[in-house]
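Onboarding guide, step 5: your first structure request.
Type a short instruction followed by the sequence, for example:

Predict the 3D structure of this protein.
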Amino acid sequence: MAKVAVLGAGGWGIAISTLLCYNGHKVTLWEFDSREMKRLSQQREHKRKLPGVKIPGLVEITDQLNSAISGAKVLALALPSHTLRKVAKEIGATQLKDPIVVNLAKGIENETLLRMSEVLREELPHDLHEKIATLSGPSHAEEVARRIPTTVVVAGFKEEIARKVQETFMTPFFRVYTNSDIIGVELGGSLKNVIAIAAGICDGMGLGDNSKGALISRGLAEIIRLGEKLGAKRETFAGLSGLGDLVTTCISRFSRNRFVGEQIGRGRSLKEIEAEMTMVAEGIKTTRSAYQLSLRYHVEMPITQQVYWVLFENKKPEEAIAELMTRDPKSEIWG
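The system replies with structure tokens like these:
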């Protein structure tokens, strides 16, 4: 089996490492913080992010990026979206042996409004551009690490690369489909986090199932509107990285984005919530990007707009809901 380097030793990186080790691959897990690396090496467990999940002894843990990626056939980037460019730049400066690069992050860069594969293409050598793929879908680390049946999708610029990623990651408890629409797969995985924050706000305010059902449906509508404008295929959003991930993130107790919204719905400030969190809620930064994209491309995204105002302009959730509910009457259209 091939050597696989998993970059990022948070909950998702650990879950992916255990999965790939189960598949018989030689796995190296990279943690940038030397103290955290030593602690993980000694305890073989991340007690804050994945309590009770042991990192297999066969997984090598290192804080040396060059060592981690040397000889790797696959680089799995389990990094927060806002750190991806920095690490990709460091990878690009090394002598690579032509690996497949699998992005696992779900986000849109704030400064450039680029998707993750676009960021990678800007920083990695040209020879690797066609070897970039993104794996996405409803896949909370807490469940993947415990081998609870999970299904995801991988999209790349070449079908051959997507199939190789499928083969590398597929297990009896982790089913991988392929898709040719990398734009739709990445946008679906990113934008659903914004809607999940809104769903959490509904939970925090004590609203009901009717409210959340409407939110998910109309949230999907505006994700599709923006996605098509950016070149994605409409049918992609009916799949795992669209509806599947959207529903899961809006209802799951493991969803960090839903949690952020729930706390805001209970009256807490974003600054206070972020100060207490040990993991990244990608939807916070993605809300900024999604809002800017809606303005740039003149796409109607009322839920995203209201989430942006609540998070960053101190709008009260009650006012946001009132404005959404009293908008001008219209037909239920998805275009």
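Each response can be followed by summary notes, for example: Residues 182-204 form the longest helix (23 residues).
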